[in-house]
Amino acid sequence: VQLQASGGGLVQAGGSLRLSCAASGRIPSIYVMGWFRQAPGKDRTFVASIGWSSGNTRYEDSVKGRFTILRDNAKNTVYLQMNSLKPEDTAVYYCAVRPTPYQPFGSWGQGTLVTVSS
Length: 118
Known about the structure:
The protein is about 0% helix and about 50% strand. It has strands at about 1-5, 10, 15-25, 30-40, 45-50, 55-60, 65-70, 75-80, 90-100, 110-115. A 6-stranded mixed β-sheet has the order 2-10-9-4-5-6, with no helix packed on it. A hairpin with a 5-residue loop joins strand 5 and strand 6 (about 55-60).
């Protein structure tokens, strides 16, 4: 499976962006899709995830109430609606797939850069 993230850009603090991630190619199964981010000089960290069948969502504490993860099963696409952005949200955002409950996130796509200016 190939993942392509898009929608990043430069935004002022308090603004909004909507990221998209489309899965293509051979897609045997999707259990969960998730968003991760990597700030300059830091490790990649979890942001949000959504169960592909259940729709259950999880969020990292710092984005709760500001970010919303959505999915379009028909398009094999996951979105991350980001509101009330803060400078500390600046990072490269990646999407990933967890194919089954027994496998970790993988198939990391090329990330999309989000820069939030103060």
